[in-house]
Amino acid sequence: MPNSTGPPMPRPPPPKHIQCSMDTLPENYGHVAFEIIILLVTLYGNFMVVLAVVMFRRMRTITNYFVVSLAVSDLLVATLSLPFRIHQTTHNTAWCLSLEACVAWIVVDIMCAGASIWNLVIISIDRFIAIVLPFRYHALMTPISGFGLIASVWGLSFVMAVLSFINWTDYGKPHFNIFISCANFDPIYYTVLSVVLFFLPLFIVFVMYGHVFTVALTQARAVAALQTDRQATTDGGRRGYINFLKEVKAAKVLAIVVGCFVVCWFPYFVLVLVSLWDPILLSRDTISPEQAKGINQTFVSALPVLNSTLNPIIYALFNKDFRRSFAKIFAQFCRRRVGSDDGNNLPTL
């Protein structure tokens, strides 16, 4: 949910028809370039995540299906949301498209952001079961239950996005506005939305990972205390401990993903709620136009879209299985290109 869902920072703009006919200001060149780079990297990185799971059988685990669902939400941000943002930035933050396009942007933003955070929730639940209840994992996290969780995530996100069509604060009155930029002025809706699609799932994630790392620490201490015991050094004991360490390492990677999500999205939700319920705090009487612009570009425009780019980078840096899969895909692509240049046809994976 980028700044299409929140009110614009107050500033004295020229008439809209003049703004939409103006060339992009030099001060916005860097921001446009940043957004284009984010779009391209997001497309490439998340497509590689999906491709790795599709191409390699060993990558087809329930956990990675949740990761693919997360990558799909980021791909939708890049294909359906970022182009609107780039268009707005090239027009110096003025909204120069129709009201229908504005509504479509807001709905897509809400659905994708909601899917992202709730995908992180089911990933944290998956890690909780794998580490805290390892002997029940395969009974609880079956393909049917896994795909059911994914469907529930997207269903909830879609419903919350569609509910934006209703004005919860002043029922029946228009609440979408494109006077300055694309925005939805509905404090009650955004308060409920923030709780359902951000603060509640974030609380669940923290509780899940709190239990995960508590159990991991307890297990690590127990294993260390038994190092002198012969039973602890048997092949079965070592194998079980290695499997446990792999689960903990996977949980650490996903915890990094959650941490990045919080850094990228928490300031945005706080600013949206403040701007809707107490706009004086962000008015020209409180902060300067330069400060307002800096807050808007950093916490409303840059960080939320950056989050969609970070996830595949984190997998590439910290997850050995994804890193190897990315390398194999790249090597296969290079071999196919060389084979094509030589007139040979190499089989695909």
Automatic annotation (TrEMBL):
<keyword id="KW-1003">Cell membrane</keyword>
<keyword id="KW-0297">G-protein coupled receptor</keyword>
<dbReference type="InterPro" id="IPR000276">
    <property type="entry name" value="GPCR_Rhodpsn"/>
</dbReference>
<keyword id="KW-1133">Transmembrane helix</keyword>
<feature type="transmembrane region" description="Helical">
    <location>
        <begin position="104"/>
        <end position="125"/>
    </location>
</feature>
<feature type="transmembrane region" description="Helical">
    <location>
        <begin position="146"/>
        <end position="168"/>
    </location>
</feature>
<feature type="domain" description="G-protein coupled receptors family 1 profile">
    <location>
        <begin position="45"/>
        <end position="315"/>
    </location>
</feature>
<keyword id="KW-0812">Transmembrane</keyword>
<feature type="transmembrane region" description="Helical">
    <location>
        <begin position="63"/>
        <end position="84"/>
    </location>
</feature>
<feature type="transmembrane region" description="Helical">
    <location>
        <begin position="32"/>
        <end position="56"/>
    </location>
</feature>
<dbReference type="Pfam" id="PF00001">
    <property type="entry name" value="7tm_1"/>
</dbReference>
<feature type="transmembrane region" description="Helical">
    <location>
        <begin position="188"/>
        <end position="209"/>
    </location>
</feature>
<dbReference type="GO" id="GO:0007187">
    <property type="term" value="P:G protein-coupled receptor signaling pathway, coupled to cyclic nucleotide second messenger"/>
</dbReference>
<keyword id="KW-0807">Transducer</keyword>
<dbReference type="InterPro" id="IPR017452">
    <property type="entry name" value="GPCR_Rhodpsn_7TM"/>
</dbReference>
<protein>
    <recommendedName>
        <fullName>G-protein coupled receptors family 1 profile domain-containing protein</fullName>
    </recommendedName>
</protein>
<keyword id="KW-0472">Membrane</keyword>
<feature type="transmembrane region" description="Helical">
    <location>
        <begin position="297"/>
        <end position="318"/>
    </location>
</feature>
<dbReference type="GO" id="GO:0007268">
    <property type="term" value="P:chemical synaptic transmission"/>
</dbReference>
<dbReference type="GO" id="GO:0005886">
    <property type="term" value="C:plasma membrane"/>
</dbReference>
<comment type="similarity">
    <text>Belongs to the G-protein coupled receptor 1 family.</text>
</comment>
<feature type="transmembrane region" description="Helical">
    <location>
        <begin position="253"/>
        <end position="277"/>
    </location>
</feature>
<keyword id="KW-0675">Receptor</keyword>
<dbReference type="GO" id="GO:0004993">
    <property type="term" value="F:G protein-coupled serotonin receptor activity"/>
</dbReference>
<dbReference type="GO" id="GO:0045202">
    <property type="term" value="C:synapse"/>
</dbReference>
<dbReference type="GO" id="GO:0030425">
    <property type="term" value="C:dendrite"/>
</dbReference>
<dbReference type="GO" id="GO:0030594">
    <property type="term" value="F:neurotransmitter receptor activity"/>
</dbReference>
